[in-house]
């Protein structure tokens, strides 16, 4: 796909300085720009590269004024970074705008889907599946019985959506994600073996949710595991049965949330965080990477460590921890002086 400077400026509501008909067909970093590529300048640290870049078009802020000759065509916008992000989103929409049903694949006679639908080869749609408009389901994806999917959803290759799952509109499910697998429910018998507790609930994902590659979201034992509007999950996250995650909470990779825990709105949770089950985490909570959360957390707390402490307390404690060898030597020297004085 090729786009001219005029076309790009139209999308971004920007102004062209240079050749309005110059065309680009790929993206690049400003320092690695090549002929036919589009780049952007937002960080002042990279300003020097705009005078040497070979990129055909560069998106810049409106207040940028070159101090020497440049060869790249400029598109001036209010915010170069936001405009470049908008352009990436537009590019993805164009790139992913596939329509139609590829073969071989399986679609149950009772399944139905809306306009602008795409189903990749070797995908599966089960009984009574209901799918909205402009949904793209890529090859080798599985959609089980009675699943409901809203409008403008993308399900990438190899994702598995188990029966009874409900997914809202404008969601993205990345490859290898598994939504609606059984929760980890077992009871020990008198002979030391385990009996499985049936997991009869489902998963509900509201609008504008992103689920990363390889992430698993377990169905509820009873009721629903729920991801509220705007939740963003990174890759390789485990969300256990009956967990509820509040609106606009973002969780980084390799975090695990145990069963029946409730997480509030607008929280930021770092990578490799472990959260025990049956606790409540408030709104706007910040949890640093590799922390272990074993208690209820109030609104606006910032935590770090395992077990997690208040962020400020953790940093103060860590200073002492780093000095433990020095403190141990000081105590040892004091003990030796005291013993020496006692023997006199």
UniProtKB/TrEMBL annotation:
Residue ranges of every copy of the UDP-3-O-[3-hydroxymyristoyl] glucosamine N-acyltransferase non-repeat region domain listed in the record: 22-89
Gene Ontology biological process terms, A to Z: lipid A biosynthetic process
Enzyme class, spelled out: transferase
Pathway: Bacterial outer membrane biogenesis; LPS lipid A biosynthesis
Its EC number(s): 2.3.1.191
Residues at the catalytic site: 241 (proton acceptor)
Gene Ontology molecular function: N-acyltransferase activity; UDP-3-O-[(3R)-3-hydroxyacyl]-glucosamine N-acyltransferase activity
Listed Gene3D superfamilies: Hexapeptide repeat proteins, MurE/MurF, N-terminal domain
Keywords: Acyltransferase, Lipid A biosynthesis, Lipid biosynthesis, Lipid metabolism, Repeat, Transferase
GO terms under cellular component: membrane
Catalytic activity: a UDP-3-O-[(3R)-3-hydroxyacyl]-alpha-D-glucosamine + a (3R)-hydroxyacyl-[ACP] = a UDP-2-N,3-O-bis[(3R)-3-hydroxyacyl]-alpha-D-glucosamine + holo-[ACP] + H(+)
The protein's role, per its UniProt record: Catalyzes the N-acylation of UDP-3-O-acylglucosamine using 3-hydroxyacyl-ACP as the acyl donor. Is involved in the biosynthesis of lipid A, a phosphorylated glycolipid that anchors the lipopolysaccharide to the outer membrane of the cell.
PANTHER family found in the cross-reference section: UDP-3-O-ACYLGLUCOSAMINE N-ACYLTRANSFERASE, UDP-3-O-ACYLGLUCOSAMINE N-ACYLTRANSFERASE 1, MITOCHONDRIAL-RELATED
Family statement: Belongs to the transferase hexapeptide repeat family. LpxD subfamily.
Subunit structure: Homotrimer.
HAMAP family xrefs: LpxD (MF_00523)
Protein name per Swiss-Prot or TrEMBL: UDP-3-O-acylglucosamine N-acyltransferase
Lineage: Bacteria, Pseudomonadati, Bacteroidota, Flavobacteriia, Flavobacteriales
